[in-house]
Amino acid sequence: MATMTLRGIDEKTAEALKQRAQQEGTSVNAVTLRLIRESLGLDKKKRVVTYSDLGHLAGTWSKEDAAEFERNTAVFEKVDEELWK
């Protein structure tokens, strides 16, 4: 396996590589190698999906948390008969 030095990386690119590495939980070196291999067609590009919903919270409540939520939102289940006359 060869060792190479890459010179002339501008600050914007270096920062983008650092951010990507942090997002992926890996090193800048690993991100750079993967991006080079993908751009050369040596590796298939991995699909990275970023969600902005609350799906990561699904299933994380304890039984106690769920019971507390039910108690605190029970009032919303009551129908005010006066409003429906």
Task: Give the SSE layout.
Layout: H1 11-24, H2 28-39, H3 63-73
Helix pairs in contact: 1-2
Task: Give an overview in words.
The chain has 85 residues and is mainly α. The chain has one domain. It is 44% helix and 0% strand. The protein is built from three helices and no strands. α1 crosses α2. The radius of gyration is 25 Å and the shape is rod-shaped. The N and C termini lie far apart (80 Å). The model has no long low-confidence stretch (mean pLDDT 89).
Oligomer: single chain
Query: Could you give a short account of the major beta sheet?
Result: none
Distance between the termini: 80 Å
The helicity comes to 40-55%
**Alpha plus pi helix count:** 3
Shape: rod-shaped
Low-confidence stretches: none
- The run of helices and strands is HHH
Structural class: mainly alpha
What number is the mean pLDDT? Answer: 89
Cα-based radius of gyration, to the nearest Å: 25 Å
How many strands?
0
> What proportion strand?
under 5%
Summed up, the domain count is: 1
Key traits:
85 residues, mainly alpha, 44% helix, 0% strand, rod-shaped
